[in-house]
Design goal:
Elements lengths: L1 H21 L3 H32 L1 H7 L4 H122 L4 H112 L4 H89 L1 H90 L1
C-alpha cells in the first residue's frame, strides 16, 4: 500500500501543476484545498489499512494462524517477497517520476515568465500603434487646414480677376472718349479750312497715338486671355490636388479601419482561445476529481475486503458493484477525453482561420502599396507637366508685362512651395503607413510564436496525462494481486 500513497501524492502534484498552468481563480483554489484535506484523510486510512495488512501478512503471525502444510506457507512467503520487490521497483519509479516532475515544473515556470513578458510587449506595441494612429489623424487635420488655405487663395485670385476686368472696362471707356474727341476734331477740321495742314498733322499724330493705344489694348487683351487660361489651369490643378488629397485621406481612413478591425478580431480570437483553454482545464480538473473518487472507491473496497473475510457473499456483491462503478467512471473518462480532443480540433481550426486572415491582410497591404506607387508616378508626371506649362506662361507674361509678371512669379513660387510641403507631408504619411505595416508583421510573428509555445505546453500536459494513466494501470495491477492474495488466504 505504500506505492499507492506515493502515487496519490504524485497525482496531487500533477493536478496542482495543471492548476498553476491554467491560472485558476480563487474558487478553484478552495476546491483544491478541500481535495488536499480529503487526500490527507485517505492517506491516514491507507496507513491504518497498511498496518493491518502487515500484521496479517507477517509470516510469523500467518504461520501461527494457519494450520496447514509447509508448502503452502512457503508459496505464500515467496509471493510476499515478490510483492515486496515490486513495491521497491515502484518506489524507484516514483522517485524518477518526481525528478521528472521537478524538471517539468522548472520548464513550466520558464514558460510562464516568457508568456508574461510577451503580454507586456504586446501591450506596449498596442499602445505604440494607438499613438501612431493619433499622429496620422493629426496629419489628416493638418492636410485639411492646408486645403482650406488653398481654397482661400482661390477666392483671392477670383477677386483679382474681378479687379482686372474692372480695369479693362476703364480702358474701354477711355477708348470711347478718344473716339469722341476724334469726331470733334473732324467737325473742327470742316469749320477751319484755313488750318488744314495743322489739323492734318494733328490728325496724323492722333492716328499714330490711336494705333499705339489700339496695339496696347490688343496686347492687354491677349495678356488678359493668357492670364484667364493660366488662372483656369490653376483652378483645375487645385481641384485635382484637392481630389487627390481627399482620396489619399479616404484610403488612409480605410486602412486604419481595416487595421482596427483586424486588431479587434485578433483580440476576440485570443479571448475565445483563452476561454476554451480555461474550459478544457476545468474539464480536466473534473476528470482528475473523478479519478480521485475512483481511487478512494478502490481504497475503500480494499479496506472492506480485509474486514469482510468471513462474509464472502457480501464481499462478492460489493466487488461487483465496485467494478460496475469503475466501468461507469471509465466511460465518463472516455467521454471527457473525447471532449478534450474536440476542443483541440476547434483550437486548430481557429488558428487556421487566423492564418488565412493574416494572409488576406498581407495581400491587401501589397495591393495598397502598388496603388500608392502608381499614384506617386502619376503625381510626379502631372507635376512635371504643370511645371513646364507654368514656365511657358511665365515666359509669355515676362515678354508682355514686366510688372504683372513679377507679381505672378511670386505667387507661383508660393504655390510651388506649398505643393512641395504637401508632397513632403504625403511622403511622411506613406512612411508612417510602412512603419505600421512592419509593426503589424512583427505582432503577427510574435502571435505565431505564442501559439507554438501553447502547443508545446499542451504536449507536455498530454505526456503528463499518459504518465498518470500508466501509474493508474500499475496501481490496478498491484490491487488485483493484493485481492488475489486475500482471496487465497480466505479460502485457506
Amino acid at each position: 500500500m505504500e506505492p499507492i500513497v506515493e502515487e496519490t501524492k504524485i497525482e496531487k502534484d500533477i493536478n496542482l501543476e495543471n492548476v498553476s498552468l491554467d491560472d485558476r481563480p480563487s474558487e478553484n483554489n478552495k476546491d483544491l484545498v478541500d481535495t488536499t484535506t480529503e487526500t490527507k484523510s485517505n492517506e491516514e486510512s491507507d496507513k491504518e489499512h497498511q498496518s493491518l495488512v502487515q500484521k496479517n501478512t507477517n509470516p510469523v503471525n500467518f504461520c501461527i494462524k494457519i494450520e496447514g502444510p509447509d508448502d503452502d506457507n512457503q508459496f505464500i512467503l515467496a509471493e510476499l517477497e515478490k510483492i515486496k520487490e515490486q513495491r521497491q521497483h515502484l518506489k524507484e519509479e516514483c522517485l524518477g517520476l518526481k525528478g521528472e516532475m521537478k524538471e517539468l515544473e522548472s520548464e513550466r515556470d520558464k514558460l510562464a515568465g516568457l508568456l508574461k513578458l510577451m503580454k507586456v510587449e504586446w501591450e506596449k506595441e498596442y499602445k505604440k500603434l494607438q499613438v501612431k494612429y493619433q499622429e496620422v489623424e493629426n496629419n489628416k487635420s493638418f492636410l485639411e487646414s492646408q486645403v482650406n488655405e488653398l481654397q482661400h487663395e482661390k477666392a483671392r485670385d477670383q477677386m483679382e480677376l474681378i479687379e482686372l476686368k474692372s480695369h479693362l472696362s476703364e480702358l474701354q471707356h477711355e477708348h470711347v472718349k478718344t473716339q469722341n474727341e476724334l469726331h470733334e476734331l473732324r467737325s473742327s477740321q470742316e469749320a477751319e479750312t484755313e488750318k488744314l495742314q495743322a489739323v492734318e498733322n494733328q490728325k496724323a499724330a492722333l492716328s499714330k497715338i490711336f494705333q499705339d493705344q489700339e496695339n496696347g489694348l490688343q496686347m492687354m487683351m491677349k495678356g488678359m486671355a493668357a492670364e484667364r487660361e493660366s488662372w483656369q489651369q490653376r483652378e483645375a490643378d487645385l481641384l485635382e490636388r484637392q481630389l487627390v488629397i481627399e482620396e489619399t485621406l479616404k484610403k488612409k481612413e480605410c486602412e486604419n479601419d481595416v487595421l482596427r478591425k483586424e486588431l479587434e478580431s485578433v483580440l476576440a480570437d485570443k479571448r475565445a482561445i483563452k476561454q476554451r483553454l480555461l474550459d478544457a482545464g476545468k474539464e480536466k480538473l473534473i476528470a482528475d476529481g473523478k479519478i480521485r473518487e475512483l481511487e478512494s472507491v478502490k481504497t475503500r473496497s480494499v479496506y472492506e475486503l480485509t474486514k469482510s473475510k468471513n462474509d464472502e457473499e457480501k464481499f462478492s456483491s460489493q466487488i461487483d458493484a465496485s467494478k460496475k462503478h469503475i466501468e461507469q467512471q471509465k466511460a465518463q473518462i472516455v467521454t471527457l477525453t473525447k471532449k478534450l480532443a474536440e476542443s483541440e480540433t476547434e483550437k486548430r481550426k481557429i488558428i487556421q482561420m487566423l492564418e488565412k486572415k493574416i494572409e488576406a491582410t498581407e495581400r491587401t497591404n501589397d495591393c495598397l502599396m502598388n496603388d500608392l506607387e502608381l499614384m506617386k508616378q502619376d503625381k510626379e508626371s502631372r507635376m512635371r507637366k504643370k511645371f513646364h506649362e507654368k514656365e511657358k506662361n511665365i515666359r509669355k507674361k515676362y515678354h508682355g508685362h514686366s510688372r504683372d509678371s513679377s507679381f505672378d512669379i511670386d505667387k507661383i513660387d508660393l504655390l510651388e512651395q506649398r505643393i512641395t510641403e504637401l508632397e513632403n507631408s504625403l511622403k511622411s504619411s506613406n512612411i508612417e503607413c510602412d512603419q505600421l505595416r512592419e509593426t503589424l508583421s512583427e505582432v503577427q510573428s510574435k502571435y505565431l510564436h505564442a501559439v507554438s509555445d501553447k502547443d508545446q505546453l499542451m504536449l507536455t500536459k498530454r505526456e503528463l496525462d499518459k504518465k498518470v494513466k500508466s501509474l493508474d494501470d500499475q496501481l490496478q495491477d498491484v490491487l488485483a494481486k493484493n485481492v488475489e492474495l486475500v482471496t487465497r488466504m480466505s479460502s485457506q
